[in-house]
């Protein structure tokens, strides 16, 4: 009998059509799939569900500012799983406000079947 994966509620997922495509690892990226609630609430380490208290208040436009910082980069993946490469990088916040210039860890995937998209973008405070 096949083992069923747990159904974790990671909140609202948004698809962004980037205002200006970026080039990442030689691929032209035009879309981003963002787990906006995961970014703003974080996940409970034990339950793997969203925390009830917000830790940040980033908007989709804010996340696009982070993505633009990847333009022209060649990044080595941390892991490969099937048709996707997983990446994690340290990046300084480009959004004016209380987190400006603070370090975050950005985690994302690129799927070989959809090389014009970045998937599962999340940000974790790096301090």
Structure description:
The structure is a single chain. With 127 residues, the chain is mostly beta strands. Helices cover 12% and strands 43% of the residues. It has 2 helices and 6 strands. Strands 1-2-6-5-4-3 form a 6-stranded mixed β-sheet. Residues 1-7 have low confidence and may be disordered.
Query: Which class do the helix and strand fractions yield?
Result: mainly beta
The radius of gyration is: 15 Å
Could you give a short account of the major beta sheet? 6 strands, mixed
Overall outline:
globular
The main sheet orders its strands as 1-2-6-5-4-3
Q: Which spans of ≥5 residues are poorly predicted at pLDDT below 50? A: 1-7
- Percent of residues in beta strands? 35-45%
Count of separate DSSP helical elements: 2
Amount of helix:
10-25%
Distance between the termini: 43 Å
Average pLDDT confidence is: 89
Would you list the SSEs in sequence order as H and E?
Answer: EEHHEEEE
Number of strands: 6
What does the secondary structure layout of this molecule look like, with pairings?
Blueprint: E1 13-24, E2 27-35, H1 36-41, H2 60-68, E3 79-81, E4 84-92, E5 103-111, E6 114-125
Parallel strand pairs: 2-6
Antiparallel strand pairs: 1-2, 3-4, 4-5, 5-6
């Amino acid at each position: 009998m096949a083992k069923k994966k747990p159904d974790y509620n990671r909140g609202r997922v948004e698809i962004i059509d980037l205002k200006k495509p970026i080039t990442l690892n030689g691929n032209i990226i035009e879309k981003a799939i963002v787990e906006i609630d995961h970014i703003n609430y974080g996940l409970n380490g034990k339950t793997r569900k969203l925390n009830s208290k917000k830790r940040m208040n980033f908007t989709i436009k804010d996340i696009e500012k982070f993505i633009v910082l990847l333009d022209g980069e060649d990044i080595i993946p941390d892991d490969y799983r099937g048709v996707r490469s997983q990446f994690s990088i340290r990046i300084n916040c480009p959004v004016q406000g209380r987190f400006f210039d603070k370090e975050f860890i950005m985690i994302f995937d690129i799927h070989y079947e959809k090389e014009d998209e970045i998937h599962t973008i999340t940000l974790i405070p790096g301090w």
